[in-house]
Amino acid sequence: MTFNGKKILITGGAGFIGSNLVKTILQEWPDAEILILDAFVNGHFKNLIGFKGELFAGDLTDDKSLNLLKARPFDFIFHQGAITDTTIHNQKKMIEANTNSFSFLLDLAEKNHAPLIYASSAAVYGNSPAPNRVGVGEIPENIYGYSKYLMDEMTRAYFKRNPKPEHPLVGLRYFNVYGPGEYYKGKMASMILQLALKMRRDITPRLFKFGDQRRDFVFVDDVVQANLKAATANASGIFNVGSGVSRTFNEIVAILNDTLGTTHFIEYFDNPYTFYQNNTCADIRETKEKLGYFPQYSLEKGIQKTVEWLETSLKDADPIP
Question: pTM of the prediction?
Fold first, then answer.
């Protein structure tokens, strides 16, 4: 399968995951024709330095953007755009941006007979016990998770109407993604990046007591791999995208100390949140079986690549406040 000569829409293409997807496609298939739609809420122009495709500033809630997309043909649609700030409590705004707009993309993909690959989230599982499995424990605890859950429900409704879709329709539930390009997410950047930025400036790492909370951390290159595999696999559905392994925050600090050559001790403090996930871990058996997705990065390897990116691209970057 080649993306050369294909017309590709990537929403949220200036954001963390979207820009990594853009770069990978153009590195592997330089003749791909990419149109990026981004509202520049989470995205940043510096993520797109070197991009020579078409960039349109807008979002799926404004008519100008919708009319532009209706008038264009697309061979593939990658939907990465969304409000991802889990601290936003404006339910109307979140549902309008993340959920209501998704119906337009379903129609656009059907009109173009194009695969539609979209970003769902592990937030749909809320605080359900790990390992997290699609179809089990889908009890979101915040409006962001609920907005993604509704997108997945729209997908399931589509499958009921179209049991054998002509082209792939795939929802990817991202777990804790980290890696190069996430600096401009600000306070929503991964703990891996936030701790790395502080520790390299000799700032003591601070964790909720006692750092033994676990997460499934997945390197961004593996997430990009999942998107590309989903677009070309002969399968539709909702799939987890993680490493399949949960690791503690204490382990992150230990790996960062080793990678940065530092010897920081951890300062622990009380967790102020009434809701906090103590353990997430993706069950990726179906993702492997149906999409051919196999994570290539251990936490150690991914942190090494992240620190290398910091040292080459963000040498003077300040810690995120």
Answer: 0.96
